[in-house]
Amino acid sequence: MGTTMVAAIMNQQGEGVVGNVGDSRAYLVGDEIRRITKDHSRVQEMVDQGLISFREAQNHPLRHIVTRIVGRPGDTPDLSQFHLGNDLLVLCSDGLLDGVSEQEMHSIALHHSLPGICRLLVENAKGRSRDNITVVAAARR
Q1: Which of 71, 74, 109 is nearest to 89 (CA)?
Q2: φ, ψ for residue 61 (rounded to 5)?
């Protein structure tokens, strides 16, 4: 068992880099929702190999088996560049997605302020997730 992480840095123009290890994720949310990280998990490997679909992966019994963790030698983060534009950046732990679908996340993000988005996502996930839940949302001013 180990720790996963997702982190981002962004300049004033909205150009940024996100890094992740494990199954914590980053999303860009605007007219649509787009995941900008890729999980390091057994289930993601199965999806990549065409053994199961993305939909099957969401409830697969092995979905929490991560293949990279923070601090283990050789487990380096993946880095992805992004441009925020008018979108919202959402960073979250896997516990959020045990309780809230990407569609629910998208709907909440479109209709609430930044503090409201984080609060509502955590509240909605709490009753459906047994894992810890962390959410950070950011937008350009």
Answers
A1: 109
A2: -65, -20
Is pTM, for the whole model, over 0.85?
yes
pLDDT by residue (tens digit) across 14-54? 999 999 999 999 999 999 999 999 999 999 999 999 999 98
Range of the domain at 115: 5-138
CATH number at residue 93: 3.60.40.10
- Which residue in this structure is represented by tokens 């979108």? 87
The domain total for the chain is 1
Q: Which long-range contacts (CB under 8 A, 24 or more apart) does 117-122 make?
A: 117/88, 117/90, 121/92, 121/96, 122/96
62: which 2 tokens? 């092995």
